[in-house]
Every structure is written in C-alpha cells, then in structure tokens.
Specification:
Helix content is about 45%, strand content about 10%. By secondary structure, the protein is α+β, with helices and mostly antiparallel strands. About 20% of the residues are buried.
C-alpha cells in the first residue's frame, strides 16, 4: 500500500492548508498501521505449509454459511484499502469485516468487538490476547482453614434453619474473616453461590429420610427390645441368604415345644394403595413440549394386601396366592377391616401349608396397627364392665364373654347360672368377679378412677384397674394371633413406628416406581410381579441389619447411619457398631 501523501508539506503550505493538515496526518498514521498489519500477515500467514490440527478445528467452527461470509469479508477488506475513502468510513468498513469474521466463526457481534479490542491492544502495546483455558485456577477456598471455617458455619446454620448464599456473604464480612482474607472487601452473592457448589452444597428438593415420630418413645423402645430378643430366637431356626440369593447359613435342628416343625419361615404382611393418577413428578421432556392437561386428584384407588417371604418372594403355590386386591370405598368393596384381614390370613396359611407340605412352621409378621390388635367379640376385657350385676349388659361384640381364670387355675364364668334364684343368667359385674378371686378389699373399691386416669404405679385403686392387671386379662391375645396360633403357626408384630423392619415396605416402593412409568390400573399386577426375588432378599437383609443394630444397643438414628455405611451381611460387626457409636458421639459433641 502506498502512502496517501508522498512528500511532507512545507511550512508555508502548512499555513495555507490550515485545518486540512490534521486530516492528512491522521490518514498517514492509519496507513502505517495497516502496513504493519500487512507485513505481520505476510510473515505468519502467507506460507504454503499444510493446515495444522488447530486450523482444522477453526475451520470446523466456521459452519454458518462460511463461503459467503468469507467472500464478503474479502470484499470488505479490499474496499477498506481504497485511498479515496476517509478514515471514519474506512474504520466502519473494517468493523464490518470483523463482524463478518465473527459470524463466519459462528460467534456473536460481541465477539467482533472483542477482536477489535485485541487488535488495538496489540497495535498499541504489542500484547497478544492470552487465555487461561486448561490452566489451574486458584481459589480462596483452596485455603483449608478458610474453607473449614465457612463449612462449619454453614453446618451450624443447617441444623436449625435454611442456608442462603447471603449467609456466606455476611460471614465473610465479619472482622475475623476479613483479617484472614487480608482486609479484602466482601464477596457478592453470585460468588457465594459458586462457593456453595465448591463446598459440595446443592440447592434441590429435600428427600424424606426415615420417619422418627415416636421411634424412640420409652414404651416403643421397651417393646422393640423384647421384639429383638424374640427375633434372635426366631433366627436360630431360619435359613439365611446373602444379597445374591445364595444360602449362607442352614440352622442345626433342636427340639421344639409342642412338636412343631423345626424349620421357621417368616412371612411378612402389609397393605399398599395404588392410585390411578399417580405419576412421576420428574422426567426428561423436550424443550418444545408444552404442559398437558391432567386429571385433578389422585383418582380411583386399588389396595393390595400381600405376604412376602425370603425363601420364595411372594407367597404363592401354583395358581393359588395370598395376595388380595381390594377396591376400598363406600360405594365399592367397602373397607379392609379386621374381618377381611382374617379371611386373607386364613387363605395365606392354606397356601403356606400346601407349599411347605408340613416341613416348616410359619412366622406371620404384621405391623402394630390398631386393626391388627383387635380382639375377638367374646375376648376378656374390663373396659366397659359394670360394677354390679346386670341383666342387659353385653360386650361390644354382642356375644357373651368367654370364661376367665381364677388364681387357682380353674375357669371362672362371668355369668350367673340360668337357675340362679336372684340373677338367672345375669352378668355378675366387676365386684362379684373380684370377690370370687379373693381380691376384694375390706374398704371396697369404686368402679373406676375419674376418666380412668389412675394413680401411677397403683393396681388396686379401682375395680377396672384391678381386673386389667389380672393374668388372664393381660394375656388376652388379638383375634389375629388366636387364628394363626390355632393353625399351629407363630404370630408376631413389629414395633410401632418401625417400617424399616418390615422389608415389604421396600417392595412397595420398587413396585410403585415401575407403576409410575405407566400409571394404568391394569399394570398394577404386572409391576408387583416384576420385582425380582433377589431384590426382595436384599430388602430382607437390610431389615435384618436394622434388627442387628437395635440388638447391639444403637438407637434409630445410629442404626440408620450404620445401614447407610454397611451393606455386607444381615448382621453388623461389633467393631463397626463401636465405630458408629464413636462417630455419632463426635458429631453430637460438635453440635
């Protein structure tokens, strides 16, 4: 490129030209800059060497109508060299060329401005636009003391409330933290959010853990301890499996009272409800997909009551099964009450006995629900007994109450004989029943304390409390227990508020996961049958580990933590339990 003015003007000519000299001088400087750029390009880009991998990568980026953009860029570059154009017009053409270069690379107009900034920087200070890609980036959080202090502050907030990014901003603004940061100013909330991610905090919907309402109540813990001891005796007669379904322990036989079969097989029962409108709340959707109309409410329900065993999974034999489908509702099948459960259990025992052919005893396990504890209509109960003889009183079940048992072991009829001269066939009342047992005090007894709120520790404050503590009343079993035991099997109940001990709960979860993929009523049975037996074995082993944890003295929180850490077997090693205790003590000490 030649210069616009070949010779420098003389002093007289400068005076004559006046203001035009400034324009000419500006054009000359622009020509020098363009000449320098042309020389740098000829030294670096004018070689005939083959394109490198970097060139290929840059060419790949130029995918948006590259030929047309490249041609336009070339034309504008040539036009910008026209000597007849003024500096302002040529600078605009140069800017258009940089924009086309950015578009050819598939970039935005902002990138074109960045290119021009890089060029001005190089022309003025000879500095190239370096980058920091693939280079290590230092963060303030790399200081272990600083990150530990922020982490401890966040943990203390999380125990009682919710964490916000502003909590880190406020914490960094404290005088102590400013001293650690060398007197630097506070950070922004955007930086605080990045720090939260770096410290492994995530903003998401909270997942529910194990429910602990009433889990550690004194009466529940007492029952749990007794249940664990009973389970310890049950396991001596059980075959156990590892998580892959392989037999890992076969018990050695020993005499069983009552002549029952030695082998013991646990069959756990529970109910669950599937709803017609149940569906997954999160899933992959296309960006073009719009919200679809959905039905309001959960829809019609279908209740399922079933039994699971470790040996076979679902309790079935041939075409017979213990499972029951029930459409609960006022205008449907009614409600699944004790009578329906008893009918199902009776059928489940038939299936069990056909499958085992008498070589095993069944251990039927149920939740400790009020409906499962319901007693037979003629069961012993002093709850509504009148104190004096009554001709019209009958139990709530509407039938005569069964015989009790005197301290001597003889049966006690609670009704007068039909030929009694004064009260033929009447109910005797609590006072006569207590007198026949030889327990009536000389001072007498009232029927019951006000509101049946007896003084703590007393058993002889009123007639009702005295009868409640009698051995035959205390040992009165539920209707469910009586049915199972009269069939020659064992019935037991899980502790209240302990769903983790009933491995059928996880079976329901696995089934509903499959059901929510295609929530249709006809798919319920297929989803229930799709859970493999090996997975049911793993569910049972997980529940057994909880029982092992409670047996070794861990509470609910410690047992849950231990089960998260250990998955190897049905029982927890004592050394591992000791470590869990130490970890929990350390955590409580810091809290």
């Amino acid at each position: 490129m030649t210069q616009i003015c070949d010779d420098e003007p003389s002093d007289s000519e400068q005076d004559r030209l006046g203001p035009e000299i400034a324009v000419v001088e500006a054009r000359r400087k622009v020509d020098e800059l363009l000449r320098d750029l042309r020389q740098a390009r000829s030294m670096s880009g004018g070689s005939e060497e083959p394109e490198t991998a970097i060139d290929d990568a840059l060419n790949v980026l130029s995918y948006r109508d590259f030929p047309a953009l490249k041609a336009a860029q070339t034309r504008l570059t040539l036009k910008s060299k026209d000597k007849k154009l003024d500096v302002v017009f040529r600078s605009r053409i140069t800017a258009m060329s940089s924009v086309l270069a950015a578009k050819a690379a598939g970039r935005s107009s902002e990138y074109a401005r960045t290119i021009r900034r890089w060029l001005h920087q190089y022309l003025n200070s000879n500095k190239l636009p370096l980058h920091r890609y693939c280079r290590p980036h230092r963060s303030i959080l790399d200081d272990e003391d600083l990150s530990a202090a922020i982490q401890a502050h966040l943990m203390s907030i999380a125990k009682t409330g919710y964490i916000r990014a502003k909590d880190i901003v406020d914490f960094v603004s404290t005088p102590d933290m400013r001293d650690k940061l060398g007197g630097k100013l506070t950070i922004s909330e955007r930086t605080a959010r990045r720090w939260l991610h770096k410290l492994d905090w995530r903003y998401k919907r909270l997942a529910n853990g194990m429910y602990i309402d009433g889990h550690e109540r004194s009466d529940v813990v007492e029952y749990r301890s007794k249940f664990v001891e009973r389970w310890k005796e049950y396991e001596k007669r059980m075959v156990t499996y590892d998580n892959d379904g392989n037999i890992c322990h076969i018990p050695k036989g020993f005499p069983i009272p009552g002549g029952r079969p030695f082998r013991l097989i646990a069959a756990t029962q529970d109910e669950s409800t599937f709803y017609a409108h149940d569906r997954r709340k999160t899933k992959w959707t296309h960006s073009s997909e719009r919200p679809k109309p959905v039905r309001k409410g959960e829809g019609s329900s279908l209740m399922v009551s079933d039994f699971l065993t470790v040996e076979w999974g679902r309790l079935t034999h041939g075409d017979e099964e213990a499972r029951v489908f029930f459409e609960a509702g006022k205008n449907r099948d009614g409600y699944f009450a004790t009578e329906e459960l008893l009918a199902q259990v009776d059928n489940a025992i038939d299936v069990f006995e056909e499958k085992t052919n008498g070589f095993a005893t069944g251990l039927f396990l149920f939740d400790n629900a009020p409906s499962h504890q319901k007693r037979a209509p003629d069961a012993l109960s002093a709850r509504y007994m009148p104190k004096n003889p009554s001709q019209t009183w009958v139990p709530k079940g509407g039938t005569r109450m069964r015989h009790g048992q005197l301290p001597s072991g003889e049966p006690q009829d609670f009704y007068f004989p039909d030929d009694d001269p004064q009260h033929p066939g009447w109910f005797k009342g609590m006072e006569v029943i207590i007198r026949e047992r030889g327990l009536w005090p000389d001072s007498g007894l009232k029927a019951q304390c006000v509101g049946f709120k007896c003084e703590s520790g007393r058993t002889d404050c009123c007639c009702r409390r005295l009868l409640f503590t009698q051995p035959d009343f205390v040992s009165q079993k539920s209707q469910l227990e009586e049915l199972i035991e009269c069939r020659g099997h064992i019935c037991d109940f899980y502790p209240k508020f302990h769903p983790e001990l009933n491995f059928i709960e996880q079976y329901w979860g696995a089934s509903k996961y499959l059901y929510r993929l295609s929530p249709m009523r006809e798919n319920v049975k297929a989803c229930l049958d799709a859970v493999p037996w090996t997975r049911i074995v793993r569910y049972a082993n997980r529940s057994a580990r909880f029982i092992s944890a409670y047996q070794q003295g861990l509470d609910g929180t410690e047992a849950y933590w231990a089960n998260r850490k250990y998955h190897g077997h049905r029982t927890l090693p004592s050394s591992f339990v000791a470590q869990i205790r130490d970890d929990c003590k350390e955590l409580n000490r810091h809290s």
